[in-house]
Design goal:
Helix content is 38%, strand content 15%. It contains nine helices and seven strands; from the N terminus they run E-H-E-H-E-H-H-E-H-E-H-E-H-H-H-E. Strands 3-2-1-4-5-6-7 form a seven-stranded parallel β-sheet, sandwiched between helices. Helix 5 packs parallel to helix 6. It starts with 9 loop residues before the first strand and ends in a 15-residue tail after the last strand. The structure holds nicotinamide-adenine-dinucleotide. The site of nicotinamide-adenine-dinucleotide (NAD) has 27 residues, from helix 1, strand 5 and helix 7. Nicotinamide-adenine-dinucleotide (NAD) binds next to helix 1, strand 5 and helix 7.
């Protein structure tokens, strides 16, 4: 029987801080398929995440039995590549001051120290941040725009640069994008649409470059709307979910697990011929060119 078997593989999933978002669903799918999973968690959310885990407040159950067990949780702030990039006020911030190695290079170094060379098979980039997301692009400041692109797109380039050397040939990286990178989506502002366009373009270029350099595949999943913690910041997420549910070829909302399963497939040997792809997991919404007639 054909199945997804990731036994003996190690994944690093960046952007996990609760059990509501896509990162968590991807962890669950990868762990269900047998992978060991490490996560990278943004320092401002680290304490609440680890406390919630300790107190049993997160749903760690795996479909078919068993529980999620994280091999290790690393603090990660993906806007910093190396310690020299971290400004003094961030170093001194109470959420950072006791932490070490939370830059992208810092996490790569820790992974190498903890597990040795060639310790990764799967890398997932499931993070984004746009401080001015509620401002239309036309009202967005240069600072806000560059912050969105830095956190949400360049972070993937940096992760391929720094985690690529740790990855086994045949490995795979997957990121999360959104339709606003291809089409105009009212309300998805602050340069976040620009960041998603960059992420999708970079997926194609990095697929070529990292494919040749490290023998890994690079893909991105364009997910339909989900009411995650990050999406609530957009301010219009309920309306987006309702609109997609009504007008998609497959009516109804997508689930985080829909994306988790697609990510597990893309990162598994079953996806071995796929690289540079933007895979839509949105109940088909992206193919629509006109609103669906109201359901009788
Ligand atoms: N929710 C949606 O509707 C939707 C749709 C399409 C794509 N996406 C994408 O899915 C990905 C995951 O988002 P989500 O919606 O599951 O929300 P989420 O809140 O679960 O995940 C976003 C994560 O990014 C982390 N993060 C923010 N800034 C960071 C930084 N500088 N360094 C490290 N981590 C940082 C947050 O702590 C959080 O854990 C994002 O790329 C998002 O743009 C979301």
């Amino acid at each position: 029987m054909l199945s997804i078997d990731l036994t003996g593989k190690r994944a690093f999933v960046a952007g996990v801080a609760d059990d509501k978002g896509f990162g968590w669903a991807i962890v669950r799918a990868l762990a269900s398929a047998g992978a060991s999973v490490c996560v990278g968690t943004w320092p401002p959310t680290l304490k609440i995440f680890t406390k919630s885990l300790e107190r049993g407040k997160l749903d760690i159950s795996l479909p078919g039995g068993g529980q999620i067990e994280f091999e290790k949780i690393y603090p990660l702030d993906a806007v910093f590549d190396t310690p020299d990039d971290v400004p003094d006020d961030v170093k001194a911030d109470k959420r950072y001051v006791d932490l070490e190695g939370y830059t992208i290079q810092g996490v790569a170094d820790q992974l190498r120290a903890d597990f040795g060379e060639n310790c990764l098979d799967i890398v997932v980039h499931s993070l984004a941040n746009g401080p001015e997301v509620q401002n239309a692009l036309i009202e967005t400041s240069r600072k806000g725009y560059l912050a969105a692109v830095s956190a949400s797109a360049y972070s993937m380039v940096s992760m391929v640069q720094r985690f690529g050397p740790l990855m086994n040939r045949g490995g795979a990286l997957v990121s999360l994008t959104y339709l606003a990178g291809e089409k105009a989506i009212p309300g998805y502002g602050g340069g976040m649409s620009s960041a998603k366009s960059a992420l999708e373009g970079d997926t194609r270029t990095l697929a070529f470059e990292a494919g040749r350099k490290y023998g890994i595949r690079v893909n991105t999943i364009s997910a339909g709307p989900l009411k995650s913690r990050a999406a609530k910041a957009i301010g219009t997420i309920d309306a987006m979910v309702a609109y997609y549910s009504e007008h998609s070829p497959i009516p109804g909302p997508i689930t985080a697990d829909d994306v988790g399963f697609a990510a597990a497939f893309l990162c598994s040997p079953l996806g071995s011929g796929i690289s540079g792809e933007t895979l839509h997991v949105d109940n088909g919404y992206h193919v629509m060119g006109m609103q669906a007639p109201t359901q009788p």
